[in-house]
Amino acid sequence: MLGLPAGRTPVETYTEIRRLHAAGEADFSQATAFLLDEFVGLDSSHAGSFRRFLTEHLLSGINLDPNQTYSLNGVAAELDLECERYEETIAATGGLDLLLLGIGVNGHIGFNEPGDTLAARTHRVALLEATRKDNAGPFGGDPSRVPHAALSIGMGTILRAETIVLLATGERKASAVAGMLRGPVTTTLPASFLQLHRRVEVYLDRAAAAAL
Ligand code: GLP
Fold this sequence. Notes:
binds 2-amino-2-deoxy-6-O-phosphono-alpha-D-glucopyranose, alpha/beta, single chain, globular
């Protein structure tokens, strides 16, 4: 059971996984995967959709069964129901064994945005301006075209994963990385909750580690 993120950070990792699969060194025939989040209002054909992103960068090059690859439906008629269904499916398949994460510049993981509170379960999120700006790439670079809302697995869903691997690169992530590893555990920096998890591996380049 894998949990997989979108974003620029894991692109090279996904390329390497595809290479390993092509070389006969990685087999996903028995694996099940869950995407962490999705924009509200986009179906999987939209250039900004995380499902499409993952299909292009990973699924198209490995033997993970599309029927065993779950993602949140951002165009579901009943979004709350969609979130409930997703949470139940993750639980029914035994929970996440390996969860790969990136981190937002503001310390979000999945789309769990900083705030006064955090949601434990899969839920609907109002995206912050900074996040919409940061995700503008597939929307022609125009933040106003980025949806205002998303669906995301929750902090409890994340913290119940057996093993978490977080990747961060570039100086833009340095402050969030320092807060995540050295700061207090706080809802204003959701990734700081990973300090409570017993098995987290963090992989950084020098720039992302610069504020440690
Ligand atoms: C996005 C996604 C996250 C991702 C993060 C960083 O908004 N919801 O899953 O880890 O922000 O993205 P990037 O890797 O492009 O910097």
